[in-house]
UniProtKB/TrEMBL annotation:
Protein name, per record: Phosphoserine aminotransferase
Classification via NCBIfam families: PRK05355.1, serC_1
Gene3D superfamilies reported in the protein's UniProt record: Aspartate Aminotransferase, domain 1 (3.90.1150.10), Type I PLP-dependent aspartate aminotransferase-like (Major domain) (3.40.640.10)
CDD domains, per database record: PSAT_like (cd00611)
Residues where L-glutamate binds: R39
Length: 358
């Protein structure tokens, strides 16, 4: 299938094949990794290797912890304010759409929030200019959504927040391009788009930020609990962490994050070009300067035509091109593991569809 699902999303075929080979008998142990104790040496290796590869591929400095947690990125919407908000110091947010909105909603239940910038008046069809983002000096942190999966918008660069820690939800674009981790206090991402299957969430956090979480916080929701126990405080989602490790090895084998970035740019250009050269038959949802390289959102003249597009695309082997149910329209998610060939096929299908219906 040409898999353009938004998440869970395509995984590299080589990774799936490798997992298949190792599925029943992991490393000659006579059992599956899924059947193994998370305290075993073999699992500890899996856990440590996945962490080490994350560090290597993103250039994560030594004063940051890499955690593998459960509960999805949605649990981080709550855990971040629980751990990082301080009395009398609001959490600031960049409101850019559905996912930022959910993060704000959870934080409001924990303490005071302020909106540092919002693109709501533009229907969230763009990311704010960096100059639009006003962060109060006393903010506990500034939270932004690196890539809005539903709207199809993405930050091209990140604000310099000085002494205020920058927190980024990179669920839908982590490892799609190089980043300077030093710019961030905390980065988090659910695995099920660019990193592996669902079930594990990666948190990269500067050590000093998790040293003073409120004493009243339940043990399980404290970052320092998981940091001290090397993400083995309780039973981890071991198979998901193993799969993340395989995906990270695959990224390394592709030449690392810079190569992936180039590959992704080539992939999405094929599709955006068809949109831009269609004379208005296809209309990109995001403003050009904010276009996502991961989730390409577009519309057509009528919902009937969009429905026909989805139906015919499915008949030709395309999966997941229907837009999110909250916003409608069409969306192609072109995460790291989506091959160039799928994007070529989609660009061709779009051009042919226009010829038939334009
Ligand atoms: N943040 C972003 C940007 C997302 O795209 C998603 C899921 O699609 C989430 C958060 C929520 O992730 P989860 O389902 O892992 O809680």
């Amino acid at each position: 299938a040409y898999n353009f699902n938004a998440g869970p999303a395509a995984l590299p075929l080589e990774v799936l094949q490798q997992a298949q080979e190792q599925f029943v008998d992991y490393q000659g142990a006579g059992m599956s990794l899924m059947e193994m104790s998370h305290r075993s040496n073999l699992y500890e290796q899996v856990n440590n290797e996945a962490q080490a590869l994350m560090r290597e591929l993103l250039g994560i400095p030594d004063n940051y912890k890499v955690l593998f947690l459960q509960g999805g990125a949605s649990q981080q919407f709550a855990m971040i304010p629980m751990n990082l908000m301080r009395e009398g110091r609001p959490a600031a947010f960049v409101q850019t759409g559905a996912w930022a909105g959910k993060a704000i909603k959870e934080a409001k239940l924990i303490g005071e929030t302020v909106i540092a910038a919002s693109t709501e008046s533009d229907n969230f069809n763009r990311m704010p200019e960096l100059s639009e983002i006003q962060v109060p000096d006393n903010a506990s942190y500034l939270h932004l959504t690196s890539n809005e999966t539903i709207g199809g918008t993405q930050f091209a660069e990140y604000p310099d927040t000085g002494a205020v820690p920058l927190v980024a939800d990179m669920s839908s674009d982590i490892l799609s391009r190089p980043i300077d981790v030093n710019q961030f206090g905390l980065i988090y991402a659910g695995a099920q788009k660019n990193l592996g299957p669902s079930g594990v969430t990666v948190v990269i956090v500067r050590e000093d930020l998790i040293a003073e979480s409120p004493k009243s916080l339940p043990v399980i929701f404290r970052y320092d609990t998981h940091a001290k126990q090397n993400s083995l405080y309780n039973t981890p989602p071991s198979f998901s962490v193993y799969m993340v490790g395989l995906v990270l090895k695959w990224i390394k084998s592709q030449g690392g994050v810079s190569q992936i970035q180039q590959y992704n740019a080539n992939k999405t250009k094929l599709i955006y070009d068809v949109i831009d050269q269609s004379g208005g038959f296809y209309k990109g949802v995001a403003q050009p300067g904010s276009r996502s390289v991961m989730n390409l959102t577009f519309r057509m003249q009528s919902e009937e035509l969009e429905k026909l597009f989805v139906k015919q695309s499915e008949q030709e082997g395309f999966v997941g091109l229907k837009g999110h149910r909250d916003v409608g329209g069409l969306r192609a998610s072109t995460y790291n593991a989506v091959p160039l060939e799928s994007c070529q096929a989609l660009a061709q299908f779009m051009a042919d569809f226009q010829k038939r219906n334009g």
